[in-house]
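Re: weekly structure request thread

Next one in the queue (226 aa):
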Amino acid sequence: MKNHTILKAENISKSYKGPNPVEVLADISLDIPKGSAIAIMGKSGEGKSTLLHILGTLEKPCRGRLEICGKEVEGSLLSEIRNRHIGFIFQSFHLLEDYSTLDNVLMPAKIAREDVSPGSAAYTRAQELLSDVGLSSRSRFLAKLLSGGEKQRAAIARALCNDPELILADEPSGNLDHGNSLAIYEILLSLVKRLSRTLVVVTHDMELAKRCDQILVLQDGFLKPF
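Done, posted below.
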């Protein structure tokens, strides 16, 4: 249902105090429909990652309100919303290098205190996701032994482990060469489409942005259509 709003932000503002105060985000409002793929672009230093972190409840705005999956983001619901409804993909992967690929994918389920023993629903889902991203044969490899492209594929599988409605990706191809970047785009976009998930991706790559349903540009603290 494309007309159902999964994320609603109203008048989100963020500034940093100091000798020279900086306003990074200025009264940003947006409605993100369920099942859509939204690209956020802009020059370095414009605050794209800050905005994504606020949308993902990793950082608090100075002003404004945020609603995710019909729930207003506030203190008592923060952990539930973050753990149950949001999956994160970061540029630098953020894998636990001395844990296996499978253990990394299972980490969100472990944090949510789910049963992750062999045969459990979470374990089976993690194996299926590893197959989806082409890493079944690497499931027992330590994360530090994976290539950059493989690490990002593992990060995509991890982001989907708890079956979240909303996937937030921050420069998912930023540390990869062109060939690996194209492979990551294909895997990420095909998975969110097949699973009817919603994607918000911060990117400098117009090739990825053009494959999304909408492109927004962050400039001088304001978010505008491309």
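The chain has one domain: 5-225. The chain has a mean pLDDT of 93.
Next request, please.
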